């Protein structure tokens, strides 16, 4: 009887830790090309924070945030490193040209940062979330080309 209890206790502990270790916000790059990814999320100090760049090779995944997700909304921006693809959205946030961690999403240019459109992801009540980035639609690429002309 004690043996059965110990086996159940060990198995329960293993399940608890394995579920916790998988809790995360992940991004998978479904293209053949290297992409740079930035994420926006609530800061533990209040307000919003953006951080990047994660370099994700083609056909691979990267964990951006480890642990159970404690917010409902997360924001993502990505761009192709070599070919200039963009995955953009309507929520304007700050990014740096090099590796960055930026507190706040206002006055990007005045603080020496760029402002780009992040895509919103509603994770609901899930502790895990994975975003699959595939080749951007031609319409999105044309919109970027028109903005940069």
Automatic annotation (TrEMBL):
Source organism per entry reads Candidatus Liberibacter ctenarytainae
Q: Which Pfam families match?
A: DUF1036 (PF06282)
The protein's name is: DUF1036 domain-containing protein
Lineage here is: Bacteria, Pseudomonadati, Pseudomonadota, Alphaproteobacteria, Hyphomicrobiales
Q: Which InterPro entries match?
A: DUF1036
């Amino acid at each position: 009887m004690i043996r059965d209890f110990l086996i159940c206790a060990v198995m329960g502990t293993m399940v608890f830790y394995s579920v916790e270790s998988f809790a995360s916000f992940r991004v998978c790059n479904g293209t053949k090309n290297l992409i740079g990814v930035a994420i926006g999320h609530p800061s533990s100090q209040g307000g919003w924070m953006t951080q990047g760049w994660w370099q994700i090779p083609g056909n691979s995944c990267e964990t951006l945030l480890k642990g159970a997700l404690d917010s409902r909304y997360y924001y993502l921006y990505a761009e192709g490193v070599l070919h200039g693809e963009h995955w953009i959205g309507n929520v304007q946030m700050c990014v740096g040209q090099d590796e960055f961690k930026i507190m706040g999403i206002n006055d990007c240019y005045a603080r020496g940062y760029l402002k780009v459109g992040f895509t919103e992801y509603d994770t609901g009540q899930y502790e895990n979330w994975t975003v699959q980035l595939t080749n951007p639609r031609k319409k999105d690429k044309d919109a970027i080309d028109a903005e940069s002309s």
